[in-house]
Design brief:
The complex is a heterodimer. By secondary structure, chain A is mainly alpha-helical. Chain A has 13 helices and 3 strands, in the order H-H-H-E-E-H-E-H-H-H-H-H-H-H-H-H. Chain A has a 3-stranded antiparallel β-sheet. Chain A is elongated. The relative contact order of chain A is 0.12. Chain B is α/β, with parallel strands linked by helices. Chain B is about 35% helix and about 25% strand. In chain B, helix 4 crosses helix 5 and helix 13 packs across helix 14. Chain B is globular, with a radius of gyration of 25 Å. Classes of the chains: A mainly alpha, B alpha/beta. At the A-B interface, helix 10 and helix 11 of A face helix 12 and helix 13 of B.
Amino acid sequence: MNLSQVTRRRIAIFRASRRGYWSLWIFLVLFGTSLFGEFIANDRPLLIRYNGEWYVPVLKDYSGDAFGPDFLPTDADYTDPELRHAIDAKGWMIWPLLPYHYDTTVKDLNVPSPAPPSRHDPLGTDDQARDVLARVIYGFRLSVLFGFTLTALTSIVGVIAGALQGFYGGLTDLLGQRFIEIWSGMPELYLLIILGSLITPGFWVLLIFLLLFRWMNLTGVVRAEFLRGRNLEYVRAARALGVSDITVMWRHILPNAMVATLTFVPFLLSGSVTLLSTLDFLGFGLPPGSPSLGELVAQAKSNLQAPWLGITAFFVLGGVLTLLIFIGEAVRDAFDPRRLPNA
Amino acid sequence: MSLLEVNDLTVAFGARRVVDNVSFTLDRGETLALVGESGSGKSLTALSLLQLLPRGGSNPAGTIRLDGEEMIGASSSTLHKARGDLAGIVFQEPMTSLNPLHRIGRQVAEAITLHRQLSRTALLEEVIGVLNEAGFADAAHRLDAFPHQLSGGQRQRVMIAMALANDPALLIADEPTTALDVTIQSRILALLARLKADRGLALLLITHDLRIVRRYADHVCVMKDGAIVEAGPVASVFARPEHPYTRMLLGAVPRGTPSPLAPDAPELLRIESAKVHFPIRRGILRRVISVVRAVDDVSLTVRAGETVGLVGESGSGKTTLALAALRLEPIQGRVVFAGQDVVRLGRVAMRALRARMQIVFQDPFGSLSPRMAVGDIVAEGLGVHEPRLKRVERDRRVIEALGEVGLPADMMQRYPHEFSGGQRQRIAIARVIVLKPALVVLDEPTSALDMSVQAQIIALLRDLRERHGLAYLFISHDLKVVRALAHRVVVLREGKVVEAGTADEIFNAPREEYTRSLMQAAFDLD
């Protein structure tokens, strides 16, 4: 690969920070695995051989009457013991490791829910008799995806706003800065409560709403970099060549600003994950029933007699945030020009 | 036993040895100069003496005996005594060597209290005394000044006062005048010479400037690539240099005058009563309370193929004028380039005109984007002004331009950090001439370069001018370089023209006192 020396040096420093390097791998493996959550925890079989034909319920919906006239022509419910019997009688099926989706109610519980950990539910069930491990897998995936999307969108908007303010300075900068000061004084939580009373915010509505109030994170740093960058001699040289403003910003100044930006991103990501969990905990986040780490914390709070809920929520949230912070620290060190790879 | 004995000193960063087996001695009352170009290891040698090497640096071999005491591996109490008490150090850049948040009186006092316990009044007296000795005028009343309120020369005097505060036996001066204006340079050097004589100081002078060595040093060590190639008394080294490198350094002085201008050369650039004013605003209403007149009513003309030297000290407005003439700063007045009024030109017409008026900046490290390959840097202007050029054709033009400045074509894929200062300046010149401009503004193009490289760049500029009939607006504080290149000279001071005329008039018979003082600083050191 054709990498510049600076990039190679940064990668070397990042790899030398063992904690951050391993955190990155652990995080990537966990996240990569959770992306295939449907194949690990699902209330549908991975593969069915029935009557000499193949069925892949994990990827495709089949109606119940495909497995015999006793069943309704609606979506097949594979948790139904009668359907299982019918399939097993004329073939076989392979189940995922955990036979529950995040919203599956575990039916054959011997104790009232929340049920403690058992052979079937390694982390127990919550107060609506849903398997906690399945919810954690989906909740982790949703939190990280939400965090990534929110971070990416806020970064893009924030970088553009900071770049314009820093590059043009003067009145643009003055108005932009005052606008940000006023805008960041808006009571985000109250507005969210009002929004929640009007509509039920889904993934995208919540994302766009948070984007409106979170894009200022990077603006200050990027603005400062552009204020500095616009007076660099090679930027002046480019302007003297007649290069257009947009090209100057994109080609000459932005690469410098990206160093400061990338240093922030892992921390923004962990902040976004925390934010979503907080909102879910308070009940202003994703719609009820969504797999969510924040909702698990809320359940743990109202079911103190079921400590597996609190312990799971603590270790999952704590673990995710710790991994992200360790990665963030290693990235920050890698971009620190004063650090030597062997130091 | 000498005050300072250095034997086989080596400085290494990891496995890379940057100073190799350097030995010298220095006695009280003596001045030893370490001379060399950038990267020769002279500053690292000096920093090793007080064990102040930057992170990652070490002294794997050699001995440093300061007043009989070994410095390498010394305990922190020994080093504490050596730093400041036995040896003081003055750095190159007085702005960054002083803490910008502390008043200067406090900074000098701190240097004293680190080594001696004094009562408040005695301390105050001592601070004023040592500032006075460093030639800091009116010291008693200016103890409350912050560094940014002082001029470069005054700051350097504060640094010298701090270095002298505890009456050291050795003063290390690392390029003490390089960041200063020419007229102030000679005053600071005279001060150092006087202090050396009065106090019997041993002075270790690190410099790249041979004129300073010849005038102020007793002994000289010439360094190249981390080793001393020649050492001895100044008189004999200068009279009979033995090592070819020393001879090359001594010979690398800009010489000659430009080839004469065609008498019928048409006028290319005319600046008429140009003004660049920066308003200073205060308060919530941002009312203008005063105006900095960076350029105030300056007029000049440049004819096709002519080189006009723009001369003055820092802050005289010479760079601002040039940037404003290219419309990189807002300007009032008239600027006519090739018959078009630059100030009133629309965006599109202005961009088209930019191909014909170009600029080369002072700092070859700052003026090339570190993330672009050399080929892309040189081609950038072609992308703007001749966007329909085919790739092959564009590469051919880039290679041609690189060839003109003496760089091989296979450098196109490489990045700026792989090149030396002189090569980078060649790349910056290639970026300009690939557009075939009529006028090039040269903003101190040689002052960040080593002496030997400086001479090469001047030869290159002269050659390019003759081949392409380029006109130069040449900005410099170094009159020697101006002499070698300019047909006409304009002397600026505080934004106003002090004197203007042909190079012969200005250099042979300067009329104004200010011009004479510049002249004296530039040529009298020899």
